[in-house]
Amino acid sequence: MSTDTAARPVRRFESLLRARELGIAIVIVLVVAITAVRNSNFLDAQSVQQLLSGAALIALLSVGETMVIITRNVDLSVGSTVGLSAYVFGDLFKYQHISVVAGFAVGIVLGAVVGAVNGLVTTVLRVPSLVVTLAMLYVIRGVDGMIVNGHTIDPTAIPHAFTEVGYRTLFGVPWLAIIVIVVVAVAGYAMRSFRASRDLYAIGSNPEAAALAGIPAGRRVFTAFVISGTLAGLAGALFLALHAQVDNSGGIGYELAVVAAVVVGGVAIFGGSGTVVGAALGALLLNTINQALVASKVSSFWNMAVAGGLLLAAIAFDRWLSLRVARGLKSARGVHRDV
Amino acid sequence: MTSDMATRARHSPGDEGTDTAGRRARWRSAARWEVGLVVVLIGVLVFGAGESSTFVDPTTFFYLGINIGYIAIMALPMTLIVMTGEIDLSVASMLGLSGSVLGVLWHHGWSFVPAVVVALLVGALGGALNGILVAKAGLPSIAVTIGTLTLFRGLAEILLGSLTVPAAGDRQFPAALTNIGVAPIPGTQLSYTTVIFLVLAVVCGVVLHATPLGRAMHAVGLQPEAAQFSGIRVRRIKFWLYVVSGVVCAFAGMLLTLQNSSVSYSAGTGLELNVVAIVLFGGVSIFGGRGTVVGVVLSVAIFGALQMALTQLNVQPEIQNIITGALLLISVVVPNGGEAIGRLRERIKRK
Amino acid sequence: MTTPSDTNARLVLTNATKSFVTVRALADGSITLYPGEAHALLGENGAGKSTLVKILAGVYRPDGGELRIDDTPVEFNGPAAARAAGVSIIYQEPTLFPDLTVAENIFTGRQRLGTFRRIDRRAMNLDANEIFARLGVRLDPEQPARGLSVADQQIVEIAKALSFNSQVLVMDEPTAALTTVEVERLFEVMRTLRSHGTAVLFISHRLDEVFASCQRVTVMRDGRFVRTEPIEKVTVDDVIHSMVGRDLATLFPKTATVAGEPVLEVENLCTAGVFDNISLTVRRGEIVALAGLVGAGRSEVARAIFGIDRRDSGSVRVNGRTLPNGDPLAAMAAGVALVPEDRRQQGLVMAMGVDQNVALASIRRLARFGLVRRASERRLASNWSARLRIKSGRVRDAVATLSGGNQQKVVLAKWLARDPSLLIIDEPTRGIDVGTKAEVHRILDGLVGDGLAILMISSELPEVLGMADRVLVLREGRLTGSFSRADADETTIMRAATGQHAGAVA
To answer: Which among C50, C294, C360 has CB closest to B230?
Structure first.
């Protein structure tokens, strides 16, 4: 039948998408292998842990960012939210001696509030999310700066038990990484399995059709922003655990790293497609390359340039891929034009 | 024959204003926006003067020019790019990259003029990279320029590393030129950067509002497909705008280097967001096709004056950040707010 | 007309009216649908078919009139309500989610749930397969909608409607973009649906299809119901006469002209998958119509001639000069003008004023010392406004505030301001009220009398027959017919357009 031959190139496309995640994983393994050849220390337990924990925070942020980007929005405020959450957490530790659990709660709630504001302004006031989250980035940096007021939270102020999260391992895997892996796995599963998350894809794929189908776009997008903010708050708490210190520069530049990770991980910047697993792997890849450069004695000065080049390559590759698929489909369909 | 609904369904999400009332309201608000900016500017000046007797003072104006001049210069090509519906987030990184190029060449003994030429060339090349990816390959400009933002800054870091030029043993930059950071134009109290900015602003304004190219840019921002069908070379215009942006930002990098008499790779980190904030607050629509250079000039003045006033009051830079963010929000909420209220009313009516 | 309380009918719409700000879209919309029937809604552009159908689908709320479903009055406050009541509409351009699978597209928001309210993909896919079986088609529920052909997307839309247990299925020009094989499959599906009691209403211009597959037809004209008849009781000419309802001559004031030198010479134009081996000539003072069904590739040919799209091979010569490939500016410089198919997206910048739109293609000519003044734009626009009788507020009002007919005149003005030697006009009177339609035709006629060469693409047979000196017919990218004004008639053109009988190729 006319549909069958058209189905074949299309199925290839879909499995290509799934293959994206596999592809990134393979590249990571390749990079590690190549670097290990030049520097055998790279495969050390400590080095591998560095790979995982270095990527952990960005990977965590990329889960929320993926959800937002899928709906054709963007959240540029995550970096400053991390900084604020980390500092507030540390401050409360130091001066109020709150418990670790309470500290986490504060960080998470803080992030959720930020996310809620982003979500409200974007959906109710219909302000482009680029502008909203950009403005929030400024505002939060400012608030953070005011609260920090030139101080620093240093390691002595933080309970040992807490910072253990930053370097303790379970079967060689850092706790930090385990937490993030769990979040990614849960989120990845949820994105495939619940109606509300499929709605996110629908909204990004075709907003008009989504409205026609009665999908509550406002509510869904709002939720995506709240999740993004919440995860940023959580990442702030983990930041403190990992680095054991924070001043007013915590999280600077994270938002750009997250967007880079997400795009490299196969999430379309125009929305509608991509997975959180892919995004998290993208974060891992970027960090792995960073560490690989260090291990290969390439000066760390190259990190940024490589990250930038990689991001550009990822965007171009995605576009080339979709063009190629479209052309393939066109010729497959063309066969059915009656002569 | 296609049904009308299908045509409507093909409209992009940013196309809200195709209903007649909405469009009329927006047009009227264009002129209103500039008037509002003037009011705000006066307010800021009054506020500043009230708090400090030295505020409305030629020296203050001079330092305002120094502080914000180079950022303002970058805001001009950004205005044109945003008008065509795109964005360039790599502006501050190009500033840093061109400064780094100048610095590394100077460090290696090049004379000044050739080094500047090379730096400007690098600006053109960087802009061309953006242009090829966005205009020719059709990639989304926000993602591309985040990539080039990282790439350019990274290249700057590779070139200069942790060096600050002039380093120990280097010549100093030509005194006659670094003078621009210290002294105003003889006979006036204006800084060189202020004058350069104003001249460029006039050129930009004339091009945007009174030339065929400017008309074309408006059309490209409002409805690129219709522009193409009218014979406008959409891709060529966007490409060259990015090249111009690269060169202008490289030039701004030169100015900054001379003002400070030194350069490091991290010059201007994070400033791209300031530039975007200035442009949007100046009334230029993020969707493209709407805005004036006058508005951007006023916005520059407001941001600069606010910064000066707050600095004189010893207000922390953090609060300035908050204010920048708030202004940015206001610049988009106000035009959209009216529509949002209208929508709320409709929804209540329907229930 | 049937009485309002016809208890056998599934759906009865009586005397519906609908007006928009300036336009009376529907003055008397009435239709009755019985279970299991295939019913065609016929009428020219602007007859009100689209509006009526959108009222049925809940997209518009009628200003007046009554809608009864299963003999109960209903009022829909949105498409969701209509769907819930069993009325589904399928638009010509399917609105699917390209990134979701076929099954997800069918069941958006209603996916089958398993434990813990998670989506049960297996069950969902089974449900989808079940619907496809019911329709008698085979599609893979797991494939992304992005890859589907228009015909397959339509099937998905029908499946979606079925999943809502729709009793009434409304389709807007469903066969416009389909190949013959796909049309056959669609009619098979429709037959299956009808055997289950679903009523199918479709808007169509393909009279041969209508006569081959429908039980009843309803004709509308000028926003009003004209008649409903069982198909056996009418002929094609009958129906056309009801649709047009007036003497063709007055609608199409065609003055005889003498064709002069060739202005446009196209040879062997080819673009893979779009059109093949197109050769045509348009001379000064003549109107050549490019007829055919929607999707035949006519607009693509026009765009390739003008240079918006690059062609794979072939040559285009204007006034003897060969045009470079893919260069609209060169075409414009050579004297070619293109009034595109989509007025709102391609023809006009909706947010700009009448003056700026009219001046948009001539800005470089208006410039003095590189500068353009608003005043000169306004002057140009005022001149042309007067000449073409464009009704607008002020010349600087946004074109979005104008009616469709006046908007089309603005597009015309924009191009006529360049004094072209060749005007390519794609669907000159689509979506325009009848009065302005006649005006546009008169304008075109006048232009041709002054020596302009016009290549006119039109899906409206009466327009083609009334205006053209020569008619070329395109089907699936190939020229299948070439007729002089004297030889052209409904039947020959339709046959060449649908491929039922090969016509003589030029």
So the answer is: C360
